[in-house]
Amino acid sequence: MLTYKEAGVNIEEGYKAVKLMKEYTAKTFTEGVLTNLGSFAGMFEIGNKYRNPVLVSGTDGVGTKLEIAFKLRKYDTIGIDCVAMCVNDILCHGAKPLFFLDYMACGKLDAGVAAEIVKGVSEGCIQSGCALIGGETAEMPGFYKEGDYDLAGFAVGIVDKDNIVDGSNIKSGDSLIGIASSGVHSNGYSLVRKLIKDYSEDFKGNIIGSVLLEPTKIYVKPVLKLIEKYNINGMAHITGGGFYENIPRMFKEKFTAIIDKNSFDVLPIFKYIMEKGVSEKDMFNTYNMGIGFVLCVDKKDEKNILKDLELMGEKAYKIGYVEAGGGGVCLK
């Protein structure tokens, strides 16, 4: 008789992983959480704080950045990336994240590694003010190599229908404010991995692998504070596709985003990647280049918003403006 364990799936290790994960998930629980980890489904009570509530959802994964984590055996930050990629997306429509669920798959489950990954997911949820209310860990021997993990998840947020940010209020002359990124974030790693083979090489006094693993910045708390105070006409999360693909996603009409590429600090890691043989256009079409989130705001509010972001400890720049007609992005 063949057992499930002999087939490669260790149920006991799964139980151990869940037990270790509970410590981290409990730290994320907010007022609306109705169930504890281990139920068949997560439950969250919206309450009556909203007049006409709209649920906003987003899903994403960490991608091939995971390979660097595996090679460096550093697992506690990639969960932050997973949360960030989801909550930053739903934030673009003015939504406050409510809860998050993760999906982790592997060839052979190591409870300690799985718990470290979920520790990062928990930290991402804490940074964004949402609750980790469930998830799935799938052990799939023969499908994933031993030591490999895949990580994805989804977030659900909420916004009053009247307060949805959909780009309909954007007008010619609006200012574009860019909030600094923390690094490469979680896009473009297939190209990074082609260009950089030794993750232990020195990069400005640190190993380059650590620089590449810097977790994606979560913009939820500072941006939600701005939304309470100002009219934010549009927002863009600079992910895969860089400036050229993501900034126009905030437009509903024909506008061109005029970007001054000298208006902000391009992070050293991007200059290094470009030196490896990537054109400037491809860099701006793949990476965030040092700007992870863009706000489209009334010109009259520009200086006050920049000041408020500075007071919140955020690096932010006026990176350009909106011009009627045309379409896409014009870098100058």
TrEMBL record:
Pfam families: AIRS, AIRS_C. It comes from the Bacteria. One of its GO terms (cellular component) is cytosol. SUPFAM superfamilies: PurM C-terminal domain-like, PurM N-terminal domain-like. InterPro entries: PurM-like_C_dom (IPR010918), PurM-like_C_sf (IPR036676), PurM-like_N (IPR016188), PurM-like_N_sf (IPR036921), PurM_cligase (IPR004733). It is an enzyme of class 6 (ligase). It catalyses: 2-formamido-N(1)-(5-O-phospho-beta-D-ribosyl)acetamidine + ATP = 5-amino-1-(5-phospho-beta-D-ribosyl)imidazole + ADP + phosphate + H(+). Pathway: Purine metabolism; IMP biosynthesis via de novo pathway; 5-amino-1-(5-phospho-D-ribosyl)imidazole from N(2)-formyl-N(1)-(5-phospho-D-ribosyl)glycinamide: step 2/2. The keyword Cytoplasm applies. It is found in: Cytoplasm. Its EC number is 6.3.3.1. GO terms for molecular function: ATP binding; phosphoribosylamine-glycine ligase activity; phosphoribosylformylglycinamidine cyclo-ligase activity. The keyword Cytoplasm applies. Residues 54-159 form the PurM-like N-terminal domain. Residues 171-328 form the PurM-like C-terminal domain. One of its GO terms (biological process) is 'de novo' IMP biosynthetic process. Keywords: ATP-binding, Cytoplasm, Ligase, Nucleotide-binding, Purine biosynthesis. Belongs to the AIR synthase family. This is Phosphoribosylformylglycinamidine cyclo-ligase. It comes from Clostridium tepidiprofundi DSM 19306. The lineage of its organism: Bacteria, Bacillati, Bacillota, Clostridia, Eubacteriales.
